[in-house]
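Inverse folding, one chain.
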């Protein structure tokens, strides 16, 4: 028997002024998308922006529904939109932001587990890491080099015998 440690490197930016220019641009677009979220039930507005390997930027936001489970998170709305518009093109960078008008967010909002699973598959099929940056309305901004850093022990298509 032995114990092993998993170590994840996270880049922590103190605020938006420290971000590289391309990530700052994606963050502006993600905030713009968040402001367009359809989130009348949670009043929690999430936006995302993906930079693709072909230079295109795709944005999206959470979309809710009166039949609650029918809604979808911003990260998956955006990833599915990017893959639908540009099939097979790798995602290079993803920025996620959230706005809570009732209680302003002073720390980064990470993607939920289901979104991590979906993002992981796009990372795996592209064989290219997706840099993920996430932020609240103020406070530090976190960045990981790969979805893998957000999701150790990920399930993947490799486990399914047909693959
Ligand atoms: N939401 C996201 O868009 N991304 C996440 O990672 C977590 C939650 C959305 C779903 C729902 O519309 C609202 O935030 C509250 O859960």
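Residues assigned per position:
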């Amino acid at each position: 028997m032995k114990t092993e440690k998993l170590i994840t490197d996270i880049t922590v930016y103190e605020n938006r002024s420290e971000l590289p220019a391309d990530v700052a641009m994606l963050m502006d677009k993600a905030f713009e998308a968040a402001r367009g979220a359809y989130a009348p039930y949670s009043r929690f507005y999430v936006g995302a922006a993906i930079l693709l390997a072909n230079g295109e930027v795709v944005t999206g936001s959470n979309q809710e529904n009166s039949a609650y489970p029918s809604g979808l998170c911003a990260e998956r709305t955006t990833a599915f939109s990017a893959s639908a518009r540009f099939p097979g093109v790798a995602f290079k960078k993803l920025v996620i932001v959230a706005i809570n008008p009732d209680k302003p967010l002073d720390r980064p909002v990470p993607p939920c587990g289901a979104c991590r699973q979906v993002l992981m598959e796009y990372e795996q099929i592209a064989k290219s890491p997706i840099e993920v940056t996430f932020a609240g309305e103020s406070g530090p901004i976190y960045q990981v080099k790969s979805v893998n850093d957000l999701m150790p022990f990920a399930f993947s298509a490799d486990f399914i015998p047909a693959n």
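Strands lie at 11-13, 45-52, 57-61, 91-99, 131-135, 141-144. The helical segments are 21-35, 74-85, 113-126.
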